[in-house]
Write a structure and sequence with these properties.
Layout: H1 7-27, E1 33-37, E2 43-53, E3 68-78, E4 91-96, H2 109-132, H3 139-151, H4 153-169, H5 180-189, E5 192-200, H6 206-218, E6 222-226, E7 231-238, H7 239-250, E8 257-266, H8 272-277, E9 285-288, H9 293-302, H10 306-310, E10 348-354, H11 360-373, E11 377-383, E12 395-402, H12 405-417, E13 419-422, E14 428-430, E15 434-441, H13 448-456, E16 460-462, E17 465-466, H14 468-491
Parallel strand pairs: 6-9, 11-17
Antiparallel strand pairs: 1-2, 2-3, 3-4, 5-7, 5-8, 6-7, 10-12, 10-15, 11-12, 13-14, 16-17
């Protein structure tokens, strides 16, 4: 017997899915990702990924196949009641495309076999992400997890394969026996100084902050932890120690955590003392406040790690984009529509308070259309009042973000002069109880669409209402001290 869902619920699912689809269309080129539909009306997101085969790691195997790749297709099917119904989670499938081996003039059968044997772990990782985000938008998280697998697990799989083949075909049995001098010399040659930038949705919990500090001391790592929204961790140390540190923090419960940038320096014929001399940071982990992201940017710039810092925004310097082994980003570094660029351009925002919405669906639809027509991103966020668990009449905030302040002003002008709601009798009316709390350049350096995604992902305490503390902390993260002071003054 078919399940009957309220019309409002179906409409909400449709609107939230459309927002995710629009994000995919804005974030990727058509050949990278696209959207189709099933016969039953389900939205389907397709993402193509290339499994790169870098024969540099294959000992003497520097042949014509260097630089070849196999293309796989990630398919995300969205159920009709996703994401409102927690039981309607996204479904993920993966396929290795036929005749997808590129850049190779030699037999690629072993590559296809390796890809076929490896993709089940990618599939499982994506499906686990679907479960973790039940009842929430998950497309962005799934795509990010796939990118993370591509730049971490796939590299490990490939390295293990090369090492296995090298030991099987090159090394005689006697080479496994080494004297202490030979082993010591080999260890010295294999030292690698690594720097990694870890991006998190947020870092707030004191237990996590303490664990990050304790683990960094245990593994003799230096770097910085920027708390708040977003959370950023930059670590520097011996590569294996960095990997162990990241493996351990990944074992904690995070809403979203990914390695976005990596940088390596090989220590030729050197020991740990030589490695320490090449460090850019002191061997200690320094915690930075949520409003110190500019300070972190300056620190990285001063020690020549600006490119690594920019990886948290998915941006790579053009003059370094072709350097091999510099920084690997887990998400495309292509500039995206609406993103804050690094050439001095700014993003702007307005924070608006609305006293009430009699016709919630119609009102929010009007806001969406008005913002879209002016090229602005937006989010409607509801939260409880300060020091209150009563969410029956929550605070309603509307965030409007854009790279052009004039676009935001146009939206607000339309807002004040349009019939956007209905009165108690159901008659369309003008909005007389909306207040622009603050409008200014924002301090959050990320893509405005990513900020909006995070706003929509704030934890909820009841229905569609979040906590006062989470909301106001995010407001301060977006706009810095100006927005923090403005919201405090407005609510006082």
């Amino acid at each position: 017997m078919p399940t009957n869902h309220p019309i409002d619920c179906e409409n909400e699912c449709h609107e939230r899915q459309e927002a995710e689809i629009n994000f995919v269309k804005c974030a990727y080129m058509e050949e990278e990702a696209w959207v189709s539909h099933t016969a039953g009306g389900n939205n389907v997101v397709h993402r193509r990924l290339d499994l790169q085969f870098d024969e540099k790691n294959d000992g003497d195997a520097k042949d014509q196949s260097s630089g070849s790749s196999i293309t796989i297709e990630l398919v995300i099917i969205l159920p009709l009641m996703y994401p409102v119904d927690e039981s309607s989670i996204a479904h993920v499938d993966i396929s290795v495309l036929d005749s997808s081996i590129t850049g190779s003039t030699v037999d690629g059968s072993w590559k296809r076999k390796l890809a076929m044997n490896s993709t089940p772990s990618l599939l499982q990782a994506c499906r686990d992400t679907c479960k973790d985000f039940a009842g929430q938008e998950s497309v962005f998280a799934i795509l990010s997890r796939a990118e993370e697998w591509l730049h971490q697990e796939w590299k490990d799989i490939l390295l293990q394969y090369y090492e296995k083949e090298k030991s099987r075909n090159v090394c005689p049995a006697t080479c496994t026996i080494q004297n202490n001098d030979t082993a010591s010399e080999q260890n010295m040659q294999e030292l690698v100084l690594a720097r990694k930038l870890v991006f998190s949705h947020h870092i707030i919990a004191k237990s996590k902050r303490k664990a990050i500090g304790d683990l960094s001391r245990e593994y003799k790592l230096g770097g910085y932890t920027k708390i708040g929204w977003p959370g950023i961790i930059i670590v520097e140390g011996e590569e294996s120690d960095c990997n162990r540190f990241i493996d351990e923090i990944k074992g904690m419960r995070w809403q979203y955590l990914v390695v976005r940038g990596e940088e390596f320096e090989h220590i030729a014929n050197g020991g740990i003392h030589d490695l320490d001399k090449m460090r850019r940071f002191p061997i200690k982990m320094e915690e930075l406040a949520e409003d110190q992201i500019s300070y972190l940017a300056n620190v990285c710039r001063e020690v020549g790690l600006e490119t690594l810092f920019k990886s948290f925004m998915n941006i790579k310097d053009k003059d370094q984009s072709e350097e091999k082994g510099s920084v690997s980003n887990n998400i495309s570094s292509r500039a995206r529509h609406g993103a804050l660029s690094t050439n001095g351009n700014s993003s702007y925002g307005a924070l608006v308070h609305v006293d009430h919405m009699n016709h919630k669906k119609g009102y929010e639809k009007w806001i969406e259309k008005a913002c879209k027509s002016e090229g602005c991103s937006h989010a409607v966020v509801r939260c409880c009042h300060a020091n209150s668990n009563d969410c029956s009449r929550p605070l309603i905030f509307v965030f409007i973000l854009s790279g052009d302040m004039s676009s935001i002003k146009q939206v607000i002008k339309k807002w004040r002069t349009s019939k956007v709601d209905v009165d108690s009798k159901g008659v369309p009316c003008l909005e007389r109880m909306m207040s622009v709390i603050v409008s200014s350049e924002i301090k959050d350096l990320r893509d405005t669409k990513e900020i909006i995604q995070d706003l929509k992902a704030l934890p909820l305490v009841q229905n569609d209402v979040g906590s006062f503390e989470d909301t106001t902390e995010f407001i301060a993260t977006i706009g810095g001290p100006i927005w923090r002071d403005a919201i405090d003054d407005y609510l006082s």
